[in-house]
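Notes to self after the Tuesday call (sharing in case useful).
The group wants a holo model before anyone commits to mutagenesis around the pocket. I volunteered. Ligand is magnesium ion. Logging inputs and output together so the record is complete.
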Amino acid sequence: MTVGAVLVAGGSGQRAGGDVPKQLRPLLGRAVFGWSLAALMGHPRIGPVVLVVPAGSRAAYDVAADPALRVVEGGKSRSQSVRRGLAALALDPDDLVLIHDAARPGLQAADIDALLEALQTWDAAAPGLAVSDALKRCTGGTMQSVPRESLFRVQTPQAFRFGQITAALSGAEAGLVDDLAAVEHLGARVHLTEGRARLSKLTYAGDFETMTRLLRPHPMLPRVGTGYDVHAFEAGDHVTLCGCRIPHTAGLAGHSDADVAWHALTDAIFGALALGDLGDHFPPSDPRWKGADSAVFLTEALRLIDARGYRLESCDLTLICEAPKVKPHRAAMIARTADVTGLPADRISVKATTTEGLGFTGRREGIAAQAIAMLSPHPPMQD
Ligand code: MG
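Result:
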């Protein structure tokens, strides 16, 4: 017996906000529809899968070529789209089919197992969650309590015998609340498996944050990293610290603009993300970085923070040198760092110290800088 699946990626997702339909928006580094597609394609019992996409939008759905997967365009209504998906599957009447909404990315193999087991006994099955809130019916200014016993919120995937759902939908009227409703009309015996919060539908903008928390494989904790850098003085008339040109009787030697402060900060971020160091990302041997503005390095580190689901919360920089005097430039250095990082100025600390004449900084041979960066978990940008 074959088990097939129809994944319906319909709808424009207006309520979820943004310009991109919600099923295409990124969620923890993968498009929303890709989560359930991977769960269906990866399940050992499921053979053919049909992804139904809105008419004219096939190019937006980046899926790897796979003989088990077909992508078809849907119709004007959801039930029309489901019918097209079923037609593309073309299974035998006794085969089984799961119909799932792409806007429910939390599907896992255990959900599929429970549905297929239920179909050994029942005509159809779907995950259901008992209603736990009090229910009220509000009409024209009056409010009436509705008993919640025996009420369930029904999710997807919904599982059917192919022949029954195909027949039920071919004669179905428009406006069915879901696919189960079509077979209920035929007197099908339906079983509810255990519903899950992660099978909820992404509807509103805030749902993405909730779903990100539910689908994140491990709890994410704040992370900190430290950075340290040294550049030697050479002939010149200024140094660059935190993107600010500071007049001095010497310059700093380096392949890029030798901004020792931002190098330390960038390294602190790479450290917090456990992504190696500045030299791994921007090798000094690469001619592209000759004379580079170190804002480029810092900006790339910030992009990686966002891509990993974090955000920069604060940073603390210490410059170690006898000269130039840092204090007169501190406000400008903080302001420039705020520009590049997007942090408010009161979360950026720039300090300076000397080594009391000791060591290489005491001998005025160069400048050392150290930095700490703190990151906190944050849902990825949704647009
Ligand atoms: Mg450096």
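Two things stood out.
The pocket of magnesium ion is lined by residues 229, 231, 254, 260, 263 (CB under 6 Å).
The chain has a mean pLDDT of 92.
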